[in-house]
């Protein structure tokens, strides 16, 4: 069977029997001679041809001997290799069944001159040689009488219908099962970590693999309007992989939301981070479905200091100016910072436990404005002990304000990390959700296609 060109090649033994009144004899007159065999070219033979022949050379049956009996019955058995046109319906490929017809009739005689009858209801398949790809289910025969528009006489013919069923094992193991296995790889792209950089590559690779299988099927199928079943499965799988790749790109954009992104909406926190996360079994590290919800701790209130950044606010007798500069520290600036932080080491031995180190290139300094009392002290109006007390009090406030600034920076950093982490968790939950959805889709599509095998 050449499915692409829709041609069936068959090796047949054709038996034709007719009665020739001119070839009768009395066997008693010829010493009991009942049967003779002579070359077929010596006698008249009916011009029976295959109507739906697709042979380029129009070769007929082999020119063998004919067997003639004394009553004029002539039998002509001849082997033939026929090529007939067969309309192939590939809608259910590779689980399809085909019907190919062999229509035999006279080329020049009408029904009034030559009548054609089928000797049996079906062809004799006793000596059939099994085909590795097709299983012959039967070959019934039927006589037809057709009235053509050109002629008023009837034209009989005998049509044999060859019922074939494809042996699908070859295509199942070489085309279908690899496709199913590749299809199950597509949802696993959602399980890959977003930072791996291979999520989109996996989807594209699976798409290319299915395209190769699709081309293999297209090479053996006729270019008809009927799409084979396995082709529909490939198209559905490729559509699913295209959708999964597009969703992967969308989810990766969510995962890589930077610190400037908006906070996660409230509905997303409720629906995605709570309900969908539990449905998809997505938990934080060290957390499971039985873990109690931790109590939220409010950050300590920020003291209302009276110093502002890059500005001066009157605070009574002690006025302060807070300065922040960015750049590389010089040796002189480092000494100024050490002098600023050293006076009161007793107030919190480690004031920056929650902020491990100074940010590179950023340092703070405080300039205390000179109050009226200090000016009087400089002029000799205040004692030395009172002057030292006020200097110590000013340094305490400087140190506390620096610590508060560091704490605020740390809170901002933690808020940014929390916002980024929430978006990453949203992306992770969506990944798991779509992974299960696509796994279910692949499973049911594979179940439908495999159901045809059973």
Automatic annotation (TrEMBL):
Residues in Neurotransmitter-gated ion-channel transmembrane domain copies: 175-449
GO molecular function ontology, one term from the record: transmembrane signaling receptor activity
UniProt cross-references to Gene3D superfamilies, sorted A to Z: Neurotransmitter-gated ion-channel ligand-binding domain, Neurotransmitter-gated ion-channel transmembrane domain
Keyword Cell inner membrane: no
Major localization class: membrane
Residue stretches of biased makeup (Basic and acidic residues): 327-339
Pfam families, per database record: Neur_chan_LBD, Neur_chan_memb
InterPro entries from the UniProt entry: Neur_chan_lig-bd, Neur_chan_lig-bd_sf, Neur_channel, Neuro-gated_channel_TM_sf, Neuro_actylchol_rec, Neurotrans-gated_channel_TM, Neurotransmitter_ion_chnl_CS, Nicotinic_acetylcholine_rcpt
Transmembrane segments: 170-194, 200-221, 233-252, 433-451
Annotated membrane topology: Multi-pass membrane protein
Annotated localization: Postsynaptic cell membrane
Keywords: Cell membrane, Disulfide bond, Glycoprotein, Ion channel, Ion transport, Ligand-gated ion channel, Membrane, Postsynaptic cell membrane, Receptor, Signal, Synapse, Transmembrane, Transmembrane helix, Transport
Residues covered by the Neurotransmitter-gated ion-channel ligand-binding domain: 1-167
Region (Disordered): 327-348
PROSITE patterns reported in the protein's UniProt record: NEUROTR_ION_CHANNEL
Cellular component, GO, one term: postsynaptic membrane
Family per record: Belongs to the ligand-gated ion channel (TC 1.A.9) family. Acetylcholine receptor (TC 1.A.9.1) subfamily.
PANTHER family, per database record: NEUROTRANSMITTER GATED ION CHANNEL
Protein name: Neuronal acetylcholine receptor subunit alpha-10a isoform X2
Protein species of origin: Xyrichtys novacula
């Amino acid at each position: 069977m050449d499915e692409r060109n829709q041609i069936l090649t068959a090796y047949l033994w054709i038996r034709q029997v007719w009665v020739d009144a001119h070839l009768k004899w009395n066997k008693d007159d010829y010493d009991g001679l009942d049967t003779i065999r002579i070359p077929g070219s010596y006698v008249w033979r009916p011009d029976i041809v295959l109507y739906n022949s697709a042979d380029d050379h129009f070769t007929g049956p082999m020119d063998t001997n004919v067997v003639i009996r004394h009553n004029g019955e002539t039998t002509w058995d001849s082997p033939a290799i026929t090529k007939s046109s067969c309309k192939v319906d590939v809608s259910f490929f590779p689980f399809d069944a085909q019907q190919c017809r062999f229509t035999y009739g006279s080329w020049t005689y009408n029904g009034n001159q030559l009548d054609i009858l089928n000797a049996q209801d079906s062809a004799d398949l006793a000596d059939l040689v099994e085909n590795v790809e097709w299983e012959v289910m039967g070959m019934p025969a039927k006589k037809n009488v057709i009235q053509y528009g050109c002629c008023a006489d009837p034209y009989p013919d005998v049509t044999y219908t060859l019922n074939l069923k494809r042996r699908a094992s070859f295509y199942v193991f070489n085309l279908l099962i690899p496709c199913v296995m590749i299809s199950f790889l597509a949802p696993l792209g959602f399980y890959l970590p977003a930072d791996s950089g291979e999520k989109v590559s996996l989807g594209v690779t699976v798409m290319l693999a299915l395209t190769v299988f699709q081309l293999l099927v297209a090479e053996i199928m006729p270019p008809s309007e009927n799409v084979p079943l396995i082709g529909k499965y490939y198209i559905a799988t490729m559509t699913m992989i295209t959708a999964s790749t597009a969703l992967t790109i969308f989810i990766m954009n969510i995962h890589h939301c930077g610190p400037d992104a908006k906070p996660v909406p409230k509905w997303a926190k409720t629906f995605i981070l709570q309900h969908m996360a539990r449905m998809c079994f997505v938990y934080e590290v060290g957390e499971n479905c039985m873990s109690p919800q931790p109590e939220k701790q409010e950050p300590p209130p920020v003291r209302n200091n009276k110093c502002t950044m890059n500005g001066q606010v009157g605070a009574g007798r002690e006025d302060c100016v807070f300065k922040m500069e960015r750049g590389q520290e010089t040796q002189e600036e480092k000494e100024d910072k050490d002098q600023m932080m050293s006076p009161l080491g007793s107030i919190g031995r480690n004031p920056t436990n929650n902020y491990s180190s100074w940010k590179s290139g950023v340092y703070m300094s405080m300039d205390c404005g000179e109050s009226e009392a200090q000016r009087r002290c400089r002029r000799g109006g205040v004692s030395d002990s009172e002057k030292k007390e006020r200097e110590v009090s000013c340094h305490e406030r400087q140190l506390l304000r620096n610590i508060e600034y560091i704490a605020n920076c740390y809170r901002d950093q933690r808020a940014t990390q929390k916002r980024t982490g929430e978006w990453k968790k949203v992306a992770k939950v969506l990944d798991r959700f779509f992974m299960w959805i696509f796994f279910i889709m692949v499973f049911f599509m594979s179940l439908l296609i495999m159901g045809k095998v059973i």
